[in-house]
Write a structure and sequence with these properties.
single chain, alpha/beta, Aspartate Aminotransferase, domain 1, Aspartate Aminotransferase, domain 2, 2 domains, 5-stranded antiparallel β-sheet, 17 helices, binds 3-[O-phosphonopyridoxyl]--amino-benzoic acid
């Protein structure tokens, strides 16, 4: 049995956590997660918790998959690691690249591996700039991204991302421009949704013209913005983005770190959004988070130029094509295929969750409830009929998250947006269980707000 107090003291003394205010962490003490199975995790005090965030948007096949452990064990026994530099390769990396290309479709021919989403977006920036330089257009360096996007936490990742709090710490690398996000409920709830989608896409064209089309290398976007609060664009948005990129010959990068590998009911989110990106970033779901792995799926347009004319690409990581990580990912993709999880999300659990969220939308606190596949979000609203938000200083999202913690549910708060991304194995009965917990937490939040005299 883990000694909670002792571990908390050492945690606070020595472990610097990501995205954490350590002063307040030290005061409260970390929650220590000790085991997991299927869609549940347990803390050191024995509490069972429904993990409606799949770890951190990644444990797509759920916890406790012995097959993945066996794949790692077998590969580690045979060849735990070898690099892919200096004209060498390894079988799991080769097989995984082939597998990912077969899932991505005809547009793509190669995969570049890293160990995370952040690294892979670094790869993207170097790759697109090298691509344009190879084609004799070295001035095409600008990348257009979006406000409130999340593309990782390295200097390139955070610069591509649109999070002001991250930009404020360490700055932004040159050559990146941001346009507004396609957040219908937040920006223009009274406008026709499809018309708003076209208008939001037109901001890309405006930015291209402002920067100068001859200077723009690429546009990057998540099919559905995840960490930004599950922002689901209107269906008109991505086809229009694609049209604009094509019009100016600009490369399109879809960051599929969250949306890839089944989350949106397709192998890649862009396949359901009507976009055909030249490059796709992946991580998380490729290995269901059992082992770190990420990379870039490279379209033929880019791969052909780099391979035939680009010479040596002076870029790579020690762990590019890590054999153990790739072996685990292969076993993970086998599970997703065998259990038909992509279609289950698309035709069964995704629509079921959508139906449940349509009912949830009747709760007095819930505004803008939306789902796509197995991601979902809503905003806590003071008065949704008149579209009045809560005062930010109330931190209503944190009040609600506190009730989720207390009631055995992991649901994320992004400001006042409450979001979920449960494992793809979540059954309809488990969706009912999760929705029951969400109601419980919403009612408790409402009771608090009434006590505070806010409602
Ligand atoms: N792109 C996207 C779309 C992501 O969601 C990354 C890149 C970076 O991946 P790595 O593996 O470098 O973390 C991500 C990561 C949150 C949260 O609070 C989301 C992420 C990471 C940390 C926190 O929702 N997504």
């Amino acid at each position: 049995m883990t000694n909670t107090k002792e571990i908390q003291a050492i945690d606070s003394a020595h472990y610097m956590h990501p995205f954490t205010d350590h002063k307040s962490l030290a005061a409260k003490g970390s929650r220590i997660i000790t085991k997991a199975d299927n869609v549940y995790i347990w803390d050191s005090e024995g509490h069972k918790i429904f993990d409606a965030m799949s770890g951190l948007w990644c444990v797509n096949v759920g916890y406790g998959r012995k097959e993945l452990v066996d794949a790692a064990c077998k590969q580690m026994t045979e060849l735990p690691f070898y690099n892919s530099f200096f004209q060498t390769t390894n079988v799991p990396a080769v097989k995984l690249a082939e597998k990912i290309i077969s899932l991505a479709g005809d547009n793509y021919s190669h995969v570049f591996f890293g160990s995370s989403g952040s690294e892979s977006n670094d790869t993207n920036v170097r790759m697109v700039r090298h691509y344009w330089a190879t084609l004799g257009q070295p001035e095409r360096t600008f990348i257009i991204s979006r406000k409130n996007a999340y593309h990782g936490s390295t200097m390139v990742g955070s610069s591509l991302g649109g999070m002001g709090g991250m930009h404020a710490q360490g700055g932004v690398i040159p050559g990146i421009e941001h346009i507004e996000q396609p957040y219908h409920y937040g920006l223009a709830p009274d406008e026709d949704r499809d018309a708003f989608g076209l208008r939001a896409a037109s901001w890309l064209e405006e930015k291209i013209l402002e920067v100068g089309a001859e200077k723009v290398a690429a546009f990057i976007g998540e099919p559905v913005q995840g960490a930004g609060g599950v922002i689901i664009p209107p269906q008109t948005y991505w086809p229009e983005i694609q049209r604009i990129c094509d019009k100016y010959g600009i490369l399109l990068i879809c960051d599929e770190v969250i949306c890839g590998f089944g989350r949106l009911g397709a192998w890649f989110g862009s396949q359901r959004m009507g976009a055909k990106p030249d490059l796709m970033t992946f991580a998380k779901g490729v290995s269901s988070g059992y082992i770190p792995l990420g990379g870039v799926v490279v379209g033929k347009r880019v791969a052909q130029v780099l391979i035939e004319q680009g010479g040596e690409f002076n870029h790579g990581y020690t762990y590019s094509g890590h054999p153990t990580a790739c072996a685990v990912a292969l076993a993970n993709l086998e599970i997703i295929e065998r259990e038909d999880l992509v279609n289950q999300v698309r035709y069964e659990t995704g629509p079921y969750l959508a139906q449940k969220y349509a009912e949830l939308a009747k709760h007095p606190l819930v505004g803008g409830a939306e789902t796509f596949g197995l991601v979902a979000g809503f905003v806590l609203m003071k008065n949704k009929e008149e579209h009045v938000h809560f005062d930010e200083s109330l931190e209503v999202g944190m009040i609600c998250r506190g009730h989720c913690f207390a009631n055995g549910l992991i649901m994320r708060a992004v400001g006042d947006r409450m979001i979920i991304a449960p494992p793809l194995v979540t059954t309809k009965a488990q969706i009912d269980e999760m929705i029951g917990l969400i109601y419980l937490c919403l009612d408790a939040t409402l009771a608090d707000l009434k006590r505070l005299g806010v409602m």
